[in-house]
Specification:
about 230 residues; alpha+beta; 2 domains; seven-stranded antiparallel β-sheet; two-stranded antiparallel sheet; about 20% helix
């Protein structure tokens, strides 16, 4: 059976805004000195507020590789979402509390579950009446691995935390059924950094030097099915 796969990367952009506060002073129409003083104060404050806004805009443009929390107490298969620990090695029922049923997609024995915010997706397959977790994909920031890599981390941070990948990237073919070169794949879809860690395989997709998605694969469950 040809199985569907989760395709595409969801880019999450956070826009920061500044809120300023101002105060006004009342004066009589005939009090010229108070009016002049107020004008001078406005002139002095104006550039300072502009400087703050410019600095904030510059800071928001800088990518951050820092995870929201420290997950170093977790195992390689685990991640923390909404304050709770999850793993692709868990039973499907363990994810019930974070799944948004309205977003669930069913394809015969294959099911895709999603959290309400869309940051975490779970793919399962059914075999002999049992629903098996196959892969979890994380596409938003704030969800980090146990080695504190998250969406938005730098490629160099991944290499520093996990070393060089120990699995060859997936072969990709174009419309003409010709295999795409590694350079073509990276240009179109991003670079795969794949690590077989025993029970699980963790894959980082890197786009423009930054992690754009993280996936955890349950190797034992995955290997029970044929893939094409």
């Amino acid at each position: 059976m040809k199985k569907k796969t989760i395709a595409g990367i969801i880019a999450t952009t956070m826009v920061l805004s500044l809120a300023g506060c101002s105060s006004s002073a009342s004066s009589s129409a005939n009090d010229a000195s108070t009016e002049i003083s107020s004008q001078e104060e406005n002139i002095e404050e104006g550039p300072a507020e502009a400087d703050i806004e410019e600095e904030s805009e510059e800071e928001s443009d800088e990518p951050s590789s820092e995870p929201v929390v420290d997950n170093s107490d977790l195992q390689d298969d685990q991640f923390r979402y909404d304050g709770k620990v999850f793993s692709v090695m868990d039973d499907v029922n363990a994810f019930a509390e974070i799944i948004d049923d309205s977003k669930t997609e069913n394809y015969e024995e294959q099911t895709f579950y999603h959290t309400e915010d869309g940051l975490v997706s779970l793919e399962t397959l059914e075999k002999d009446g049992t629903e098996l977790p196959i892969i979890i994909i994380i596409t938003g920031g704030g969800v980090a691995t146990n080695r504190n890599i998250s969406v938005g981390s730098f490629r160099d941070d991944v290499i520093a935390a996990y070393g060089e990948p120990n699995v060859e990237p997936t072969k990709v073919y174009g419309p003409d059924n010709k295999e795409l070169s590694r350079e073509e794949v990276i240009e179109r879809y991003g670079e795969e950094l794949i690590y077989d860690l025993g029970d699980i395989t963790i894959t980082f997709i890197v786009t423009d030097g930054l992690v754009s998605s993280i996936s955890y694969t349950n190797n034992a469950n995955h290997d029970q099915f044929s893939w094409s």
